[in-house]
Amino acid sequence: MKIKTADFVISNSKVDKCPDSKLPEYAFIGRSNVGKSSLINMLTGRKTLAKTSAKPGKTQLINHFLINNNWHLVDLPGYGYAKVSKSTKRTFQKFITAYFEKRKQLICAFVLIDSRHKPQKIDMEFMQWMGEHEIPFCIIFTKADKLKPKALEQNINNYQQEMLEYWAEMPEFFISSANTGMGQEEILDYIDNINES
Ligand code: GTP
Ligand code: MG
User: Fold this and answer.
1) How far is CA 158 from its chain centroid?
2) How do the domains of the chain map onto residue ranges?
3) Ligand nearest to the CA of 92
4) 51-73 tens-digit pLDDT
5) Which ligand is located closest to the Cα atom of residue 63?
């Protein structure tokens, strides 16, 4: 898929205030700092569309972007960032889960996992929660440029093994780098295929 237009629409803290639209929607979720906003910029080829930061906790709202005037891409705050206050953290969790529970337009969520790390409990629990709520999701392993190809392969193999302890099969997954553009075509084609079907 070629991105012809990518426009910011609105930021919200309440799912009820998100765009009242029938367009298909794809959301990016994962731990704070995993690279959600950077990936959105890489996918759309717009360096500053979504706000990024080296400090975790940058994205604090539900951000809608309109792509090619025919689907929405959504940047969400991260989960599991210990340094925000307990009450802020709870608000994140509440509106993140509310978003997934209520947003009927959501076609698929992309759960981002840092390819450098061993499986983390919080990600496993989040995917479990998605499964229990029957919310379709894929995995994207991020920051692939930070590992040598062998180590990357090893980590992803390990991750699959761990997933298969809980899941009958490995969800669809992609490998990405916001720095090199790795994964761009595959992820956009995946979305395109669903939108066309
Ligand atoms: P929150 O909004 O705080 O939840 O974070 P986020 O998941 O949106 O992460 P963000 O895109 O802001 O990126 C966090 C940091 O990781 C930034 O310093 C990015 O430059 C860096 N980063 C993101 N993706 C990549 C990548 O693919 N490769 C490398 N090397 N760095 C990355
Ligand atoms: Mg962000």
Assistant:
1) 21
2) 6-109+122-140+169-196
3) 1
4) 888 888 878 899 999 999 999 99
5) 2
Nearest to 116 by CA among 75, 145, 76: 145
Model confidence pLDDT, tens digit, residues 127-145? 999 999 999 999 999 999 9
Residues contacting residue 2 through CB under 8 Å, at least 6 positions apart: none
**Cα–Cα distance, 165 to 176 (Å, whole number):** 24
| Ligand 1 center from residue 61 Cα (angstroms) | 16
pTM: 0.95
Ligand nearest to the CA of residue 77, numbered in listed order: 1
Cα(136) to centroid of ligand 2, in Å?
Answer: 21
CA 10 – ligand 1 centroid, Å: 21
Q: Is 115 in the pocket of ligand 1 (CB under 6 A)?
A: no
Instruction: Show the beta-strand stretches assigned E in 49-93.
Output: 62-67, 71-75
User: Is the CB of 33 inside a 6 Å radius of any atom of ligand 1?
Assistant: yes
Q: What is the CATH number of domain 6-109+122-140+169-196?
A: 3.40.50.300
Give dist(CA 85, CA 79) in Å, integer. 13
